[in-house]
Amino acid sequence: MDRNTLIGMVLMLSIIVGYGWWSQPNEKERAQMEHVHDSIANLQKQSIKVELKENAVAVDTTTQAANPIAAPDSTTNTDSLVMTKRQQQFGVFAAASAGEQRFVTIENDLVKVKLASRGGRIFSVQLKQYKTFDAQPLMLFDGDTNVFSVQFPTRDNHIINTGEMYFEPSASGVVVKDGDSSSIALRLTVAEGKYIEYVYSLKGGSYLVGLHLNMVGMSDIIPANNSYLSVDWNQDLPKVEKSIDNERMASTCYYKFTDDEVDYLSEGKDAKKDLTTKVKWIAFKQQFFTSILMPGQEFDKPISVETKTDKSSTSVVKSMLAHFTLVYNHRSSESYPMQFYFGPNHYQTLKAMDIGLEKQIPLGWGIFGYVNKLLVIPTFNFLDGLHLNYGIIILILAILIKLVLLPLTYKAYTSQATMRVLKPELDEVHAKYPNDPMKAQQETMGIYKKAGVNPLGGCLPMVLQMPILIAMFRFFPSSIELRQQGFLWAHDLSTYDSIYDFGFKIPFYGDHVSLFVILMTISTIMYTMMNNKMMSGGNSAMQQQMKWMGYIMPIVFLGVLNNYSAGLSYYYLLANLTSFGQQYLFKFFVDEKAIHAKIQANKKKVQSGKKSGFQARLEEMAKQRGYKLPK
């Protein structure tokens, strides 16, 4: 392709693109086009209505010609056409496919459950003793955000979905008092002695809503080769907390297999899973509340669970979807007992049911979970029984845990004191061999050997304290007891405290300033500085990196914890302040001169040939790595 041809093609393309842009309609022209389009659509709708009316008149004329006694009634004939269409679509369920939406309620002192005649389903659930973050009534779901429907085929080849049918309630509403129980039935009648019935029951002072699905006289309607009823349970989780991001990270679907294993879908991303074994219960878990469906017998496979997230939504946290089946045995009457739990994620409440529901509260895996279950939760519940402010409870909890860890902390302090006594000798070694780290390491190990010192003595006690800190990282964001409980400037210890809102989001930090996090960060940096001064001032590259890491980590957590529970940051702040106090008191009990004298005595023992067990292991390790120890 020569140059002139290329220039010509570029000019032609430019003209085409320019003409397309120039010929685009302006705002006024687009509005006129939309008006014309809407006018055409309206004319088409009117034409369809006229055609339907003419068809109805034609049918009516034919009917009158065949039966001249019948009075002309276009409404009757239109209704007849509608019914015919319903019969074609729903068969024997045609009559139940039309009706009027009505609502009935069943409630106690804890929950208010609204039931809808269309679908016979639970329309909404209000938790009476809780409010949203902005003081509105707390609705677990409301309206079409909750779906519970049963699907099955009929002998005349129709697929029936109970969510499209109208049920007849047995009462207008029931209020259940403590010690009592009551129920409301919603019935879908097909024919005499043939019906589908939902019976909802509730006891006073309970979050459990019973459900009995009764299939009566359906055996000659459902095909003999169909042995299952298909059930869909879907729910949109509404925003009820201050931070929708925190809610999304804590909301997912949990389920329990028949072998007592509890599993869940990923919280951080949308997920779907087909479950290959029977399931004892399915839970749509939010941050502090949950909806759980528990069958009288295990849900039969196939079973699938799914979570979806519309990140553009500011009102819906996540969408939960569950599909399962119920075995149908073609008896004249079959009943499927189930229970819903609509309530808080309170550890003791869920654990009391003794079916593993408490496992959906994330307390940490392995040793961290045991620390929470065996130490933190019992202590917290005991203090909670004293009816103190939760800020005071956290303060007492921090002090008690520090007292439990006191022997380890004291051991770490004495080890640091020993290293400080050895600091001059270690500094001399590093000054003597500044360019020979291998030789400096050999000399350092020789000093440790002569002094009978374990260089890990100060690290091990600190490592053993880590499970407590990590357990607290899981406990506070999951503790519903802290929800909407204020302390000092924090209005809600279960979420972040904010002393200033930016109005925009800063990457890796957030859109607000948490004062508890700032104070915790400052105290952590100060504690790190104090420890660095107290510990041996080794000049190795690794030691210098560890020192800098001690300053970097608090800055990292400044962004991580800024959106976390204020109770967590407050606890870490108290832990730091308590550590300061312990370090100050330890100075009066640890005599570094006595430590120095003990080290000198150990050196004499080594010179006389005596070795401690640790010294022997340290020497053997050095030999295996090729180090030559000084004699």
Word description of this protein:
The chain has 631 residues and is an alpha+beta fold. It folds into 3 domains: 28 residues; 262 residues, Beta-galactosidase, Chain A, domain 5; 248 residues, no CATH class. The protein is built from 15 helices and 22 strands. Strands 7-9-10-11-20-17-16-13-14 form a 9-stranded antiparallel beta sheet. Helix 2 packs across helix 3 and helix 8 packs across helix 9. The longest helix is centred in the N-terminal third of the chain and has 40 residues.
CATH class of the largest domain: Mainly Beta
Shape-level CATH architecture of the largest domain = Distorted Sandwich
Strand order in space, largest sheet: 7-9-10-11-20-17-16-13-14
Helix content, binned percent:
40-55%
Report the β-strand fraction as a percent range. 15-25%
Termini separation (Å)? Answer: 85 Å
Number of domains: 3
Q: Can you count the helices?
A: 15
Poorly predicted runs are 29-72
Could you say which overall geometry the principal axes of the C-alpha atoms support? Answer: elongated
The main β sheet shows up as: 9 strands, antiparallel
Q: What name is given to the CATH topology of the largest domain?
A: Beta-galactosidase, Chain A, domain 5
User: What is the tally of beta strands?
Assistant: 22
> Radius of gyration, Cα only, in angstroms?
36 Å
Report the mean per-residue pLDDT as an integer: 79
Class derived from helix and strand content: alpha+beta
